[in-house]
Amino acid sequence: MTNHETFENLVKSNKTAAAAHFLCALTVIVLYMVWKNTHPYLSTEVFRSTIAGPDTPDTCNTNPVNGEPNQCNVNVGLTKPVYMFKVNIIFGAVSFFVITAFAHAFYATDGFGSKAYSNALAQGWNPYRWFEYATTASIMTLITGLVDGIRDVQTILILTAITAAMQFCGYSVESQLRGHAKVNLMARDSVISSTAVGWILYVTLWASILAAFAYAVHDVNTKYEGHFESDGVTPIKVPAFVWFIIISQAIYYALFGFVQFNHIRGRLSGKPFDYLKTEKAYIGLSFTSKLSLAAGLSYGLLFRTKDCPA
Predict the structure, then answer these.
(1) Of the candidates 205, 82, 91, which has an alpha carbon nearest to the alpha carbon of residue 145?
(2) Inter-helix orientation angle 127-147/275-297, to 10°
(3) What is the CA radius of gyration of the chain?
(4) What is the mean pLDDT of residues 102-120?
(5) What pLDDT score was predicted for residue 54?
(6) Which of 31, 53, 51 is nearest to 42 (CA)?
(7) Is it true that domain 3-53+72-303 has CATH number 3.30.70.20?
(8) Which residues contact 84 (CB under 8 A, 6 or more apart)?
(9) CA torsion, points 36, 40, 42, 47, in degrees to nearest 10?
(10) Coil, strand or helix: which one is 179?
(11) Does residue 46 contact residue 87 with C-beta atoms inside 8 Å?
(12) Domain ranges across the chain
């Protein structure tokens, strides 16, 4: 198979991916419009913490600190969080499908006729992907965080920023590996450092999400233990679709990193490396990760609540 034939197959894969993402977006919209009773359950409120103020009791310990007079430990009191805004989770799912469909249309038409895509692939990288991922992956993290029960606006912003930063670590790695010449020592060191930073960000992101999820599961299991059982009602538990979303997304985010690991290994080995196979792997992962998230959301927030009263 020639490089030209391989690129033509890649174009077909992008056309298929563009159509698949568009159809997924359309399907979610249709389900949303048909099951109108689900609408009240789809918008999640986000809050910020607020300081109670000087009238709150015990905000200052008047005992001297380190024996110095006129000093005290100030313990800032917090009050009920303040509502900031709502996020419609289903609209978020539609948005990442639409953005990705547009990106694949760009690739399938070779940069809308500019040959930007084929020229980039010829150099062994795709810079445009990382800008798309910085947007869509951040939206996916936002949705995952909300499903996880994270409602603090500062935390949500930090997690989405970490996600975007991870994508630009990927951009940095590919920019250093582009071309077909042997990777020099300076580029190799940059690849290693960018990869390390990317995985540190990944661990930070998912340690935060998984910790919040573990706390939520613990609180539900302990605070609702035995609740309603005397009435013959099924005990309250964290829904299975939430488990599915959290675990599957943690795995998918890691898989993207492993694909780049293979790219790094291939280029640093000094042997000829077929980047088009890496590009195809990203196409498949991008679709399946988004599909799994949307499927979990559609089942949990649309299908399971379609018969609830408005």
Answers:
(1) 205
(2) 20
(3) 24
(4) 96
(5) 60
(6) 31
(7) no
(8) 45, 46, 47, 48, 153
(9) 160
(10) coil
(11) yes
(12) 3-53+72-303
